[in-house]
Write a structure and sequence with these properties.
heterodimer; A: 514 residues; alpha/beta; Rossmann fold; 6-stranded mixed beta sheet; 18 helices; 24 strands; 25% strand; B: 370 residues; mainly alpha; 15 helices
Chain lengths: 514, 370
């Protein structure tokens, strides 16, 4: 008998978005069950229903064969379901054990029994091989360990079924392996794990069976050993997809950007970029590799002009830009696709046309003597909507009404509507579906082929390996390794440097730091 | 491709209808609550409501009061819309009104005031002074990081007390002890458009201001930059827009409108002189107008028409019946709550979709506008 079963789940959000439509899910006890699908396929909604955050409009949930209804997460927790979200819900200033027991504390009279709490947390972490020190405050732990605290939290509440929502998205390859060890030990001790993911190799490695979702429906449930990455991708997207990018041979002799001794200090006074030397040439993509928060974003922001630098020098197209404004740098042919499109790359309340022209408000084609040329602005939008096949009602629709992939296309369209000299890209396909990912990769590669120097940062190693000519690994704001991208370069090799476990000698680096 | 612009237009139309529905829904519910409050506080509730809903139209004089209120509410609504669109919560319109009025007064009571230049110079001086007064919290925020809400509110008190002091101590008065200045010479007072009413040049200025603000926001690059800063300041910086310049200039331009309102008060038919506390809290009601109009300049005068009507009705209710004018304060608060909280918005639109309430909305709105 199935442990947990969802039959014909339907969920329509107010506003008419159908997130789930006749979704079926059968979870056997003691298995790792992956739920895969593109963004917007309805995975998260389904999990929220299982965990009682959302209530379905149709369908039934069976737990141990008996119908159940969860009005809120509390009821789901009581029934033995635990969930670890992508964004952790921990109290940063509390210690690990305090976070774990918070809300169900062992009591001594009316006081929290600290010794018992610490002992229980240690026992749990021992039992399930989730090693973490119970005493330090959570904010001092790396992301991978914080995730373990979240899992311990669920286990402390006697979860039989553990839902992990894209747990690997924030982890370095080595940390992913550690997570998988923990998951296997959980399963060995009778727990059941539901694993949401979109990185297929990981899914194939860890899961026993897989449910594929597409556009709010379940496409099918398969045994992991019966599928390949390719057949799974085809099921997800509904057609064959190729995740290869064809690239031209380019002339990479001209140096477009030269960063020397760059230092950036953040608001808290910490040095986040510590003396960086970096060149980017026309016609190449340089990938910045690193666990998030090791200076990649700050480096890109410093070159764009959004962050003041504490030392060093930045040259673009032979000119020192260190003291230039954002607009002057853009005038030299700099374009930038920022990390977070909603926070930084778009004004979601403004129209598509206005977003597409926002970086060109000193261009006489669109603005003359302070007045907007609405016709030209609209025509520009019309043209870019067609060229980048953005799915939108029209130029005056608000950007906020678009899907994630189409929003990102608006950003890409604006930045690449004219061939840039230097293109800075940060997380170009985060939260973007496969179809749009392909398109965005193609567009960035086209810019490179046409002679742009591209500096790319991404949390997705497969993206960096697919696109880059050279790879530079940052750890704590310093370059610790550099590679020329070759087919035999593996994520594991990069991972060792990303985590600071090893460092190349300067001779080794020199080969790839031209 | 050819169908896209049509979809575009129809979706815009739909948004507009939804917004209008929201505003009217808020109005209907506010009137219902007003009705309940009147029922509880009045011995003759239906008579009181009758006064509230019909009396502003009873005589040319009351119609004049209504129109005068529309003009003033429009200008303060525009001033707030301008800073709200840049997402600056500057609350300084009241202070700008007092400073602007002072500047206009000094012009009007000078020899220049008695010449043809009395009106244009008075207005110009008021707008300049208001602009300067709006600039202060802007530059303080840009250079010192001072919170604009706090600094603009504090500046309001300074302006009110300064006006108070100058009227008592410095400006010429008809006799010692009164809290007003001498009447302005006729050449410095806005001429009436309709005899024996308060309908004067103010309404024209208000309408011109609507068009100018709309043009500035939607047809100039400054306006687009301002709106982009308001939508997402980080994005604006990333695009190369100087967000701090936009912020300061928005607050300065809004200050000029506040100054204009000051001149409309003292140079208009209502006063024709400067008196202490002349503004009576009207400037702040621009916040409500701007919120209901969603900071859209073209919607501001329309909201002002309805709101001014309620405001006049309430004042007449206060004078002619046993209901206190404070009731309208409650109604105002309810409108703000309804329009600004998204929860209630969904609640209202759902109400409309269910049917019966749908017919009530236009009827009541029509009643108020009659």
């Amino acid at each position: 008998m199935a442990l947990l079963e969802a039959i014909g789940i339907g969920k329509t959000y107010p506003g008419g978005v159908v997130a789930n439509d006749g979704v079926n899910l059968v979870i056997e006890p003691g298995e790792v069950h992956a739920v895969v699908g593109e963004n917007g396929a309805g995975k998260s909604t389904l999990m929220k229903i299982l965990f009682g955050i959302e209530q379905p409009n149709a369908g039934t949930l069976l737990l141990d064969g008996k119908p159940v209804k969860f009005a809120n997460p509390r009821e789901a927790i009581d029934a033995g379901i635990g969930m670890v979200f992508q964004h952790f819900s921990l109290v940063p200033s509390f210690s690990v054990y305090e976070n774990v027991v918070l809300g169900s504390e062992p009591k001594a009279g009316i006081r929290l029994d600290r010794h018992k709490a610490i002992a229980e947390v240690e026992a749990l972490s021992e039992k399930f091989r989730l090693k973490v020190d119970p005493l330090p405050p959570v904010r001092t732990l790396p992301v991978g360990q914080q995730q373990r605290v979240e899992i311990l939290k669920a286990l402390y509440r006697n979860a039989r079924i553990l839902i992990l929502d894209e747990p690997t998205a924030v982890l370095a390859p080595q940390e992913v392996q550690e997570l998988f060890v923990a998951i296997r030990s959980l399963v060995a001790q009778g727990k059941t794990v539901i694993f949401i993911a979109h990185k297929l190799p990981e899914v194939l490695e860890i899961s026993d069976s897989i449910t594929v979702m597409r556009q709010g429906k379940t496409v099918g449930q398969v045994k992991t050993r019966e599928v390949t990455e390719k057949s799974l991708a085809a099921m997800m997207v509904g057609r064959e997809v190729s995740l290869r990018v064809e690239r031209k041979a380019t002339d990479q002799s001209e140096r477009v950007a030269a960063v020397t001794g760059l230092r950036v200090v953040n608001a808290r006074g910490t040095e986040v970029v510590a003396g960086l030397d970096l060149n980017v040439h026309a016609g190449e993509i340089v990938g910045l590799v690193g666990v998030e928060g090791n200076g990649q974003a700050e480096t890109l922001e410093a070159i764009t002009g959004l962050r003041s630098i504490a030392g060093g020098d930045i040259q673009v197209a032979g000119r020192n830009v260190s003291s230039m404004s954002v607009l002057e740098r853009r005038g030299l042919g700099l374009a930038s696709i920022p990390e977070d499109r909603i926070a930084e790359g778009l004004a979601t309340g403004a129209s598509v046309a206005e977003n597409l022209v926002a970086t060109r408000l000193n261009d006489p084609r669109y603005v003359r003597s302070g007045l907007l040329d609405l016709k030209a602005i609209r025509a520009n939008a019309q043209k870019l909507i067609e060229r980048f096949s953005i799915r939108v009602g029209g130029p005056s629709s608000a950007v906020g009404t678009l899907s994630g992939g189409n929003m990102q296309k608006v950003v890409v369209a604006r930045e690449l509507s004219e061939q840039p000299k230097l293109l800075l890209v940060n997380q170009p396909t985060r939260g973007v579906d496969l179809g749009a990912t392909q398109f965005i990769w193609r567009t960035i590669t086209d810019a490179r082929d046409a002679g742009a120097a591209v500096l790319l940062s991404s949390a997705d190693l497969s993206e960096l390996l697919a696109l880059s000519d050279r790879l530079i690994v940052l750890y704590r704001g310093k370059i610790v390794a550099a590679f020329i991208n070759q087919p035999d370069l593996s994520p594991e090799t990069l991972g060792a440097y990303m985590l600071g476990l090893s460092t190349q000698t300067s001779e080794e680096m020199q080969v790839a730091l031209k | 491709m050819s169908t896209l612009p049509a979809i575009d237009r129809s979706s815009r139309f739909k948004t507009m209808r939804r917004e209008v529905g929201r505003a009217l829904g808020a109005l209907v519910i506010a009137l219902l609550v007003a009705f309940v409050v009147v029922l509880l506080t009045s011995k003759a509730p239906f008579e009181a409501l009758n006064v509230l809903l019909t009396q502003p139209l009873s005589r040319p004089r009351t119609i004049g009061l209504w129109i005068d209120d529309i003009a003033k509410l429009t200008v303060t609504g525009l001033a707030f819309s301008l800073v709200f669109q840049a997402r600056q919560f500057a609350m300084g319109v009241q202070g700008q009104v007092y400073i602007g009025a002072l500047a206009a007064t000094y012009v009007a009571l000078s020899p220049l005031g008695a010449s043809w230049a009395g009106i244009p110079l008075g207005i110009a001086a008021a707008m300049l002074a208001g602009a300067f007064y709006g600039f202060i919290p802007g530059i303080a925020k840009a250079k010192l990081g001072a919170n604009e809400i706090v600094s603009s509110l504090m500046l309001n008190y300074i302006a009110i007390e300064l006006c108070n002091y100058l009227v008592r101590a410095n400006l010429p008065k008809p006799q010692a002890g009164v809290l007003t200045t001498n009447d302005f010479p006729d050449s410095a007072v806005f001429p009436t458009l309709v005899a024996n009413t308060r309908i004067d040049l103010s309404i024209i200025f208000a309408l011109v201001a609507v068009v100018l603000v709309w043009f500035a926001l939607y047809r100039t690059s400054w306006g687009l930059k301002l709106r982009l800063v308001g939508h997402n300041a980080r994005f604006a910086e990333y695009s190369g827009i100087k967000a701090t310049f936009i912020m300061v200039s928005a607050m300065t331009a809004s200050g000029a409108l506040g100054g204009l309102l000051g001149s409309m008060f003292v140079q208009g038919q209502t006063y024709g002189k400067l008196t202490v506390l002349f503004e009576g809290g009207l400037a702040f009601e621009g916040i409500l107008v701007a919120i209901v109009a969603r900071s859209r300049p073209l919607a501001v005068p329309i909201v002002a028409i309805f709101y001014a009507y309620l405001r006049q009705g309430a004042q007449l209710m206060n004078i002619r019946t046993d209901v206190p004018a404070e009731v309208i304060g409650i109604v105002t608060a309810i409108i703000i709550l309804l329009v600004s909280s998204s929860y209630s918005l969904n609640f209202i639109t759902r109400l409309f979709r269910r049917g019966p309430a749908a017919s009530a909305a236009p009827a009541a709105a029509g009643g108020a506008a009659k």
